[in-house]
Each structure stands twice: as structure tokens, then as C-alpha cells.
Amino acid sequence: MSIIDFISMALFIATIIYISLKQIETFKIKLLVSIPFIILIFLFSRSFVLLPIYIYSLIAATYLYTIFFYIPFAIDFILILISSLDHMATLKLLLISISVPMLMSMFLDKNMKKYGLENEEHKGKDIKRESYRDYFQIGTGIITILVFVFFGHFGKVIILYSVLLIYLFGNILYLHKDYRITNLVYRMERENTKLGLGSMYLASGFLLVMGFIGSIKVLYVAAFLIMVGDSLATIIGMRLRTPRLVYNNKKSVGGFLAMCIPSFIFGVFFIFYVPAIFYSVFATFAESISNKIADDNITIPVSIIIAHFILAVA
């Protein structure tokens, strides 16, 4: 065992012991659900390096929107930086070790689930504010695609650190509502929802997609679906009166087609027709049932990963 492995193992075990003794009620369910993920990450990496990254990502996500966020985030950031610079772990496993605990915490934490439900309930109610959000998200999608176009696989590293900065600044702005920039950002937030919550879900979901999908061309399509297609569904769904979906009366046929058709057209420029329509339909269906399951920034990325595995074995 190398010295780095030994230090990582010691840090991981010490942290587990500490939160088990001091904050077991907060982390009990999350730790239990994390066990299979931690085992798989260790088995695939054959190293302890990623385990403290996993646990500190979980702790940081748990304490999002509080002053207790900064210390675990700082430790996590340093560990991620060391790991990514020294190539001690594959980038795919590193991305999974960061995104899985982030999404898990958001999904399992009672407060975060409440914030997510409030966010979904106010979706589309304020057309002007929703438009700001969607245009910004479309712009983010275009920038993300361009990052891959110009930097290729290194674009994953750029996006990783961009996501970490989103988490940091989201927490800073939430705790300092008197900042001028905070008021500007709040103009793009839905009423009575946490600052940047949707962006953080989206960012974590896209990290998860990058962790499971290696093809840059498929990542073009994934970025379009998650950031552009989803926004088009909201924009058209708000503005056009079209029939409601049979299986979900809160979603419209117009919104479904507004996401599915442009995503398919974009996809055929980079991948074959069949995969393009498969990804588009699968992800659009996931978006159309998101209010019944989870935030669409979780359901869409997960659906893309599932579709990718189905196509890989077909």
C-alpha cells in the first residue's frame, strides 16, 4: 500500500467514525445507501484515494446553504485537485465519486427534498422569471458544448472545476443576501426556492453523465438535452396551449415535442439516427414524468445514462 493510499484510507475511516459518533442521525441513511457505491468505487479503482473524496462530497452537499459547508468543501476541493493533477484515479471514477454523493444527499435529505418540491411547484408560474432561467440555461448548454468542441476530453476537467465553483458561489451568495449580485441572481430563481438549487442539481447531474459516458459526441447530445432541450420544453410549454400528456396532466404535448424534436435534429449531426432518437425520446419522457419522481435535472441525466447502457448492449 502506497503512502497516499494509507493516508486516504486513514482519512476516510476517521471521517466515517467522527460523523457516526457525532452526527449519526443526519448521515445514517446516506451512509447505508452509500455502502454499495463505496465498495464499487474501491473495486474498480483498486485504491482508497477516491473514498475520502466521496465522503467529503457527501458532507459538503449535506451542509449546503450553511456555514458548515465550507470546511468539508475545502477538504474535498484539495483532495479532488491532488487526485486530478496526479492522475491517481481515472477521471470517470473521480466524477462518479463526486456526483453520486451530491445527488444522493439532495435526494435523501429531507430539507433538500422539500426545496426540490417547492422548486417544481413554482415551475412555469412566473413566465418572465422562468424565461430568464431558461435563456441562461440554454446559454450554459451552448458554452458546455463549445468547451467539448475546443478542449475534447480535457473539457471534462474544466467543467468539473466549474461545477465546484458553482457550489461554492451558490453557498456564498445564499448566506450573503445583501450582495448586489445576489439580487441579480435571484431574478432568475423561482419564487420561494433556494438560490441556485436548480443549477446545482443540473451541474451534479451532468457530472454523473460525464462519469458514465466517455464519447464526446454523445456528451454533445447529453448537454443539449439537459440544458437546451429541457429549457425549450419549459418555454414552449408555458407559451403554447397544447393538450396535456395522457400520463401527466401537468406536462403538455407541446413541451414534449419542443424538447424531443430539436434534440433529435441536433443529435443526428453527431451520432446515428437511431441513437439520436433513442436518447431524445428517452430523456424527454424522463422530463415529462419528473414532477412525479424527482427534479428533472436528476431524471434526465439518469435516463441518458440508462439509454447509453441499453444502446451499448443492444
From TrEMBL:
Keywords: Membrane, Transmembrane, Transmembrane helix. The chain crosses the membrane at residues 32-56, 63-83, 135-152, 158-175, 195-213, 219-240, 252-278. It comes from the Archaea. The keyword Repeat does not apply. The keyword Transmembrane applies. This is Phosphatidate cytidylyltransferase. It comes from Acidiplasma cupricumulans.
